[in-house]
Structures are given as C-alpha cells and as structure tokens.
Design a protein that fits this description.
Elements lengths: L1 H6 L2 H48 L4 H14 L7 H20 L7
Amino acid sequence: MLEFIKSLPWTAILSVVVTVFCFVFKHIFTTQIKPYIEDKGLSDACAVAVSAAEAAYGREHGAEKLEYALDMLKQQGWNVESKLVVSYIEAAWQDLDLFQCGSGLKDDE
C-alpha cells in the first residue's frame, strides 16, 4: 500500500486540485462578490453625492442639486446616463428625506 501511495503522480493531482479551486473561486467572485462590491460602491457614491448636493444648495433647488450630484458621480467615473445610477440617486434622496423628516429637520410633504 505504501508503494502505491508513493507511486501516485502528486504533482499532477495537486495541479488538478489547485485548478478546480481557482475555477470555483473565480466563479464565486464574479457572480457573488464582485457585483456586491460594485453595488455597494455605487450606493455609497450616490449617498455622498446627494448629501454633498444638499449641503451645497440647501432646501429646494431640486434641479441644481440633481445636476450637482450627477456631476460628482460622473467625475468619479460612473455612467450617469444609466437608469441604475439614477435609481440609486433617487433612493439616496429618499433616504435623506426620510432621515430629515424623522429627525425634525424637515416637515412631511
């Protein structure tokens, strides 16, 4: 039995195991981890852009604030023509609005 184990091509077996592991890791990374990281990055970038626009223009001035936020995101390399980016901006503004209403900074409209 010991001779059989010694005669196995361990280099080839290890090579196959490493190849399979790399394939599985790449699949998990590209289907699960990378989209999550990109999604989280876009969400955070939109929240910062919306907060910065709100700080720069204050209440009202919706069109100017939207343009400011879109410009910030464009400078960071996001595709501001994408419906996804616009949806994230709208969601970030909704979150900010809910926070302001909940904390008494703004009346419910």
